[in-house]
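quick one before i forget lol
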Amino acid sequence: MSENKSSRRDFLKGAAMGVAGGYLAGMGLYSYSPWRKDMFAKKNRKMQDIGVCKRIKVTNISETSWFDNATLMGDIKNAGGLLVNQYDYNWPPFGNGKGLGKGSYAEGIAKIKHLLPNRLEEAWDIIVKNTVHPENAGGFSALIEIEDLQGKTKKYLFDTGWSFKWMDESFKREGIDKMLQNNEIEALVISHEHFDHYWALPVTMKYNPNIKIIIPQGFYPEGKQYIKDSGHKGEVVVAKNGLNRIEPGFASFVFAVPIITRVYGEQSLYFNIKDQGLVSVTGCCHQSIVQFAETARDEIKYEKDQLHGIYGGLHISPFDDWDPKYDDLVISLGKYGFQKIGCNHCTGLVCANKFIARGYPVVRGTARHRSKDSAYLGNGDVITFG
């Protein structure tokens, strides 16, 4: 490892931790200097080998998890806040008709279970009548294509979104429906149990109920039951906390973190690209971008010892609010030397534009299909690594 790269990483640790350092820290100088490295114990890197792949291509099926921030936040606030069980909000599809904050998985699923997974339009009509703000539901989902060193390509679906209606339309727009029907997709990998990443599960089941599903450790009973209630007939793999190898050059890492609306654990993805370095793909990155990058460095062996790229939601300003402390995260991201950044969803548009303003190598989108800004890789946009 070069001295320059080592200094950059030590520099970042100092910036991210925010430990006080006297007068200079108060002025900001000490916090953003290589002197901080003396505050941290040296770590022995595990350098676990996940293999190598040639290239990955990520197609954004939908990053529009919800269409209006104010509506979503109003629902959360009026239902009791961010610590309320997500199945109690009375959001689609688990509506029981009793109003905001009075939902129930059991009561909601009972109204539509007999229609899943093939009669989604009929189910959605019932959902609209019994849930709060069904028109605001969208979803996050991406298609990941991995090319191995021999030129063979495999496809994985990463998350399945929220609204039955929106996600079915999005699947058809990007040809995911046909890929699922033709058994072209190896597995559905779920990042975490959140509504906007997981609740449109019957849409995937409509086109391939036998697909393998990989979920992270930490799902609640409702989330596990939903797999059965959605019509799934295939294998379910529970990825354990820590590193899980999936294909040569492809591994997931399950972070054991508590998340808002009573969700626990997030599964993020790492790809080791031949002659390029490591690419990190995340659904929301609730574990924080600093922990995401530091975990890669501490746990995995990768090409050129270079963190090459990152894609997905980076969870800095998901509702486009801004606090000055977020600027530390913006600065921190630059210290890793990513050569290609594709952000969307819960990164927040304010944050994405700050990345661009700092000159980071952000791949711009086209702002199509209800994505709001070209600072994002939005709905229908594609990014390749390698």
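fyi The mean pLDDT is 91.
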